[in-house]
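Teaching assistant's notes for section 4

Start the section by putting this record on the projector. Ask students to predict, before seeing the second block, whether Glycan metabolism protein RagB will look compact or extended. Collect guesses on the board.
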Amino acid sequence: MSDFVVNGLSRYGASDKTLLMLDDLEDQRRNTFIRIYDDGEVHIPFQAEDPNYQGSLLNKFLGIVGDDGSRWSYNNIPVYRYADALLLLAEAKNKLDEDPSAEINAVRARAYGENFAGHEFVDGTKAENTQAILDERLKEFVGEGKRWWDLVRAGDSYVFDEVAALDASEAYKIYYSISEGMLANDSELTQTEGY
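Reveal the predicted structure now:
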């Protein structure tokens, strides 16, 4: 790989966990990352410790390559899309002790297409449903800046399980402090605990 450079390649970008989660050949979201190897071989499935693995490229919002080979990055980046609305509804249903499987399955049906049979989600415990929703959101929205907020909504334990740099003793760091100006101008506000 030393004889060429790939813009955007990051050996430290997608974690092995993320690449393994997205390595289902029947799920169209597998192509979210292009996996780069230095031996010219096809590597399926992804092996986390493969010495030939050099990194991965996020295969979203790449723009358009013009006739002259220039890349134009003027993609519209979605803020919310239908899958987001479905999975947020699944979260709400799960928190209300309702069955979120219809919404999870609607997202999976699109992702798996004709391979959907056998990948149906069946309602489980609240914790199982929460994990399934988080997994679907990770697969669906990787690279779109939603993961942190997904973990915060899921609850403190999920944040601490997923973010190694954050310790439960620093739980207050999950939430922002309120500025001095806002506190001074609104007597109903109280500072976020820990600040």
